[in-house]
Amino acid sequence: MPELPHDSTSRGQGQRLRMSKELKRAIEDAYRVVIFTGAGISTESGIPDFRSPGGLWTKMAPIDFQDFLRSPEIRAEAWRRKFEIDKTIVSAEPNKGHMAIAKLIDEGKASHVITQNIDNLHQNSGIPAEKVIELHGNGTYAKCLDCGERHELSWVREIYDASGAAPDCRSCGGIVKSATISFGQAMPEEQMNRAHEATLGCDLFIAIGSSLQVYPAAGFPVLAKRNGAMLAILNREPTELDQIADLVIHDEIGPTLAPIAMLN
């Protein structure tokens, strides 16, 4: 009787379970965990990764911050693109990966989530806003670049639809922009400082769903490792920092994290 072929699906499930157990043990042994997330966790909620090959930014160059500032026409085009992109984002909901992280935060095992994402899904999963450090801002509202007043996107959309132009701040007349960090725009100093402090305070740093290629954000895993913390990386594809990590898992995020947080 010929030997039956090995079941690759079973092998894959077995490896996932083993690696999940290793990560779970590292989390249990840690005193303070900091979690760093990139676009990969949100793609499992149906949000596209704009940086990946074939993504939006490979088809349509992003608008530079200085161009946004100098031209009302470019600002109007930026808002047109924003509302078009939001069609694929507004219906997205937190997935098992987000919920597992939320549980680790709620149980006090993880202190903060440092994220490159702008989709607000960590907050929507139940994590208090003060525990989420948004390095690239938040795309669910807008802010005046002059006075800092918050403007809801529904208000911006109403003005844009009526006039075809980008609105000015209702308080000071300044430029209103999505509360995200654009190409050419300075990183948010307060958020960077908070991320730096959180990173130095952890003994386990888990990078999840990030290619770890975009700096200065990708410098935080390196900082954690140099400061003596254990570095774990969970990403579907290899990253540039795999070689310095203590634990590397190349797998889906939600299915890997769900058993760790014991989600149903």
UniProtKB/TrEMBL annotation:
<dbReference type="GO" id="GO:0017136">
    <property type="term" value="F:histone deacetylase activity, NAD-dependent"/>
</dbReference>
<feature type="binding site">
    <location>
        <position position="144"/>
    </location>
    <ligand>
        <name>Zn(2+)</name>
    </ligand>
</feature>
<feature type="domain" description="Deacetylase sirtuin-type">
    <location>
        <begin position="13"/>
        <end position="264"/>
    </location>
</feature>
<feature type="active site" description="Proton acceptor">
    <location>
        <position position="136"/>
    </location>
</feature>
<keyword id="KW-0479">Metal-binding</keyword>
<dbReference type="InterPro" id="IPR050134">
    <property type="entry name" value="NAD-dep_sirtuin_deacylases"/>
</dbReference>
<protein>
    <recommendedName>
        <fullName>protein acetyllysine N-acetyltransferase</fullName>
        <ecNumber>2.3.1.286</ecNumber>
    </recommendedName>
</protein>
<dbReference type="InterPro" id="IPR029035">
    <property type="entry name" value="DHS-like_NAD/FAD-binding_dom"/>
</dbReference>
<feature type="binding site">
    <location>
        <position position="172"/>
    </location>
    <ligand>
        <name>Zn(2+)</name>
    </ligand>
</feature>
<keyword id="KW-0808">Transferase</keyword>
<dbReference type="InterPro" id="IPR026590">
    <property type="entry name" value="Ssirtuin_cat_dom"/>
</dbReference>
<keyword id="KW-0862">Zinc</keyword>
<dbReference type="GO" id="GO:0046872">
    <property type="term" value="F:metal ion binding"/>
</dbReference>
<feature type="binding site">
    <location>
        <position position="147"/>
    </location>
    <ligand>
        <name>Zn(2+)</name>
    </ligand>
</feature>
<dbReference type="GO" id="GO:0070403">
    <property type="term" value="F:NAD+ binding"/>
</dbReference>
<feature type="binding site">
    <location>
        <position position="169"/>
    </location>
    <ligand>
        <name>Zn(2+)</name>
    </ligand>
</feature>
<keyword id="KW-0520">NAD</keyword>
<dbReference type="Pfam" id="PF02146">
    <property type="entry name" value="SIR2"/>
</dbReference>
<dbReference type="InterPro" id="IPR003000">
    <property type="entry name" value="Sirtuin"/>
</dbReference>
